Each structure stands twice: as structure tokens, then as C-alpha cells.
Amino acid sequence: MSIPPAPLPALRDVLRALTTSQYNNNGPWARDSQQTSVFGQGRTALAVGIDALRTRRNARSVRVWFPGYICEDALGVLRGRSVDLAFYPVREDLVPDWDCVGGNSLDSVDLEVFVLVHYFGFPNDGIAARGFCDRRGMVLIEDGAHVAGPLAGMGEGDMTFYSPSKILAGPQGGVLTAAPELVALPATASSGWISGPTMRWLFVRLAQKVFVRLGIPWHGLTGLEPAESSLGPEHCDRFTLRMLSVTSRHLAGAIEKRRANYRVMSEGCLGIVGARPFRAELPEEVCPYVFPVLVEDGSARMVQVLKESGVPASEWPDLPREVLARPEEHRVALDMDRRLMLLPVHQSLQPADLRLMVRRLQDVVAA
């Protein structure tokens, strides 16, 4: 039995995306009078937002602070720009270690940006981040790549970006929101009707859907996972924009299903020796991106065994080289990187999938 790693598109949504008139820019991601613009990926949305801030403030030098627990892929677009990247340590709950943030003696810059990450769909310490940035004269950007949309505990930032394809069935997409008085965002644009990567995503996800429906294991087959480039196109194609417009109408249902799946996984994993939920409790309004598990002896072996059995477990992607070069300062991030395992809770999962994941996790721990 193979468990799908991400939400599978409904055929009716694909057909609607092929026939709908255009992308509805008034999606569920903006608050009040915020402006919204959609790009190819969340990392592109972040880079465009920083470019807009640089232009508005006529800043020649820019420094962007990220948590040490950040994946290198998220920085790919920014590394191609003249931006100074800095990294602050985090605590065991992934909240910024406020006692150590900004401890490095760096030269002053024209524009300083602080990025607060809301990990796995859970809100981070936004109020403290807002106060910190106000005292330092920094711009606060909220990284909502794991978040379904605005929720309690967010909204303190000057900008927020999301990655809807992590929550909804879609090939790509990064949404940037900001107050119009802060910056002028470029209008949403498209890169053509349908791209090669989108065609591949559509083929792979629909093929997975057929295999699941027929009960045929497919996790050992090559070519049944969409390839994702670290540096994708700046804009989505028109099909992706329309798919985003169609699937966002189902967001409330997706959130409810993900929450229910998360609770099942949390209850099923309680009592497993050597592996525990990173977040056992699920606060109201939170839409979980994944089910994070801390493995005491390290997650690498467990992830590999689970993947070979059809469970799409994964590890946190590679950390930035700057973080790896300062192991003492980023001790917590490195430990999380070694121990954390991610399991799916998306809305396409069936009760049998959840039972299978819990059972195989128990078996692997006991082995």
C-alpha cells in the first residue's frame, strides 16, 4: 500500500481550472485592505517583497535575518541578489532565542529585515517579534509557507508570504501580502498557459490518484513524484493560478480534515518509546501542514525504512552552510535537523492510511 505524500487533485477541480475565466485575486490570504500578489513559489514572493522594500526605502545595503532552523532551498532566490543573510538561534520550541538574536557584531545597513517562521502551521511568537523589530527599526516579515492563511497569533508583520500548494492540491504558488502604504506590490502575472513542470505535476498526481483508487502500491516505481526546482519561474502559469482559485474554495474543508487527521496521529503516537509528537496539542484555528515527530536516536534510519514501506516520511531539508559552520551557536537547530521526522496529515488521506502510518511507526521504533 502506498500513501500519497501530498493532496491529490479532484478531477472536477482540474476541469474547472481548465474552464474558469481567470484567477480570483481576492483569495483567503489577505487581511482587510492588504494587497496580494501571486508568484511561482513562496521563496520568490519573499525575494520580490524584499526588493520592493529596498526600492521604497532606496536602500543600498540589506540584511535579512532568518532562524537557524531554515532550509537552504528557501534562500535560493535571495542568494542571487545582493543581500546579506544572517541567522539567529532558536529554542527547543522553535521560538527565536531572544536573548541571543542579533548578538553578532555586524556593520549597520540601510534596511534590516527579520523573518519569523510559523513552523508546521503553528503560530510563532509574533508579539515578541513585533516588539523586537520596533525597538531595532527592522521590518518584520512573517513566513507563512506552512500556514493555510491568517490565524490568531499572526498579523504582526509588515509582510506575510504563503505557499498554498503545501496545503491545497496545486503544482506551485507563492502568495505575498502587504499593506499598500508599506510598498507597492507588482500585479499578479502569468508565465503562459501551462508549463512543462505543471504538466508533469498533473500527470503524476492523477496517476497516484488512480493507483490509490485501485489499491496498487506505487512507491517503488520511478517517476511518480513531481520534481521541484529550487529556483523555479518567477510567475505561475495561468492553469496554476486558476487551480489555486478553484481549490481555495475548499480551504475550510481541507483545514477541518487536516485537523482531524492530526488528532488521530497524535493519539496513535502517544506512548511510543523513542518517538514523540513535536506538538501533541492542536490549538484552535491551526491548520497543520504535517505531523512532526521527534526521534530520540535520529530520524534518518526511520525515515528510510518508512519510505521503503510506502509511508512518505521525510526529514527537514538541508540547513544553510552558515548555520552548519557555527554549530555551538545553532546547537538546537542542528539537533532538530538530526531528530525531526515529518509525516503527512493532508486532506487526501483515508482512515486506513492513518492507521497504517501509526502501525508502521510503532514497528520501526520497536525493531
Please give a structural write-up.
The protein is of the alpha/beta class. Helix content is 33%, strand content 15%. A seven-stranded mixed sheet has the order 1-7-6-5-4-2-3, with helices on both faces. Strands 8-9-11-10 form a four-stranded antiparallel sheet. β4 (111-117), α3 (126-136) and β5 (139-144) form a beta-alpha-beta unit. α6 (251-269) packs parallel to α10 (351-366). The two termini are 20 Å apart.
Mean pLDDT: 91
Radius of gyration equals 20 Å
Task: Please state how the strands of the largest beta sheet are arranged side by side.
Answer: 1-7-6-5-4-2-3
- Tally of individual helices: 10
Shape: globular
Content of β-strand:
5-15%
Question: Which regions are unreliable across 5 or more consecutive residues at pLDDT < 50?
Answer: none
Helical amount? 25-40%
How does the major sheet shape up?
A: 7 strands, mixed
* Sheet/helix structural class: alpha/beta
Roughly how many Å apart are the termini?
20 Å
Q: Give the ordered list of helices and strands.
A: HEHEEEHEEEHHHEEHEHHEH
Number of strands: 11
Describe the SSE topology.
Blueprint: H1 11-19, E1 35-39, H2 42-57, E2 62-67, E3 84-88, E4 111-117, H3 126-136, E5 139-144, E6 159-162, E7 174-178, H4 196-214, H5 238-247, H6 251-269, E8 275-277, E9 290-295, H7 300-308, E10 314-315, H8 321-324, H9 331-339, E11 340-344, H10 351-366
Parallel strand pairs: 2-3, 2-4, 4-5, 5-6
Antiparallel strand pairs: 1-7, 6-7, 8-9, 9-11, 10-11
Helix pairs in contact: 1-5, 6-10
